[in-house]
From TrEMBL:
Similarity annotation: Belongs to the peroxiredoxin family. Prx5 subfamily.
Active site: 55 (cysteine sulfenic acid (-soh) intermediate)
EC supergroup of this enzyme: oxidoreductase
A Gene Ontology term for the protein's cellular component: cytoplasm
Descriptive protein name: Glutathione-dependent peroxiredoxin
Catalytic activity: a hydroperoxide + 2 glutathione = an alcohol + glutathione disulfide + H2O
Organism in which the protein naturally occurs: Leptothrix cholodnii (strain ATCC 51168 / LMG 8142 / SP-6)
Keyword Oxidoreductase attached: yes
Known role: Thiol-specific peroxidase that catalyzes the reduction of hydrogen peroxide and organic hydroperoxides to water and alcohols, respectively. Plays a role in cell protection against oxidative stress by detoxifying peroxides.
An annotated GO BP: cellular response to oxidative stress
Annotated EC: 1.11.1.27
UniProt cross-references to Gene3D superfamilies, sorted A to Z: Glutaredoxin (3.40.30.10)
Chain ranges of the Thioredoxin domain: 2-168
Length: 168
């Protein structure tokens, strides 16, 4: 399992782009995790699924509301990561008002999530293999803090915990 001090695993995540520009076309675009985190401080929070209750009511809104404060604390980007496809993550981002605040990063096949060792088996619930709920502060591709939730909990991966860690 990924731990503090580790480099993020190599991999590709996808993001649904609403407006063409900066070399990105409309629709799903692929991004290399290593390149996207190089030289940056990135707050990443992961969750089991788009449009699910806790994720939609608390997790994403908390980061949207704290985006300016996180950026003032030195965070260059905020990523929401989920084992969903880029179309779903794009729709969820529109629903949650994340534009310009939180990048909605899709790990459609769960490959990156599996590489981190932070998977959650929800096969019995009809949701397949998903991501555990966690947050991490990544500096130049290296994990500086990692907050993994206990099953069914939402206590340590919230935006306010990340803000305290980023400001420290």
């Amino acid at each position: 399992m990924l731990k503090v001090g580790d480099k993020l695993p190599a991999g590709t995540l996808n993001e649904y782009i609403e407006v063409e520009g900066n070399g990105c076309s409309l629709g799903p675009n692929s991004f290399d995790v290593t390149k996207e985190t190089a030289g940056k401080t990135v707050a990443i929070f992961a969750l089991p699924g788009a449009f699910t209750p806790t994720c939609s009511a608390q997790h994403v809104p908390g980061y949207v509301q704290a985006a300016d404060a996180l950026k003032a604390a030195g965070v260059d980007e905020i990523w929401c990561l989920s084992v969903n496809d880029a179309f779903v993550m794009g729709a969820w981002g529109r629903d949650q008002g994340t534009a310009g605040k939180v990048r909605m990063m899709a790990d459609g096949s769960g490959t990156f999530t599996q590489a981190t060792g932070l998977t959650l088996d929800l096969v019995a619930r009809g949701m397949g293999l998903r991501s555990q709920r966690y947050s991490m502060l990544v500096v130049d591709g290296v994990v500086k803090t990692l907050n993994v939730e206990a099953p069914g909990k939402f206590e340590v991966s919230d935006a306010q915990t990340m803000l305290r860690q980023a400001a420290a």
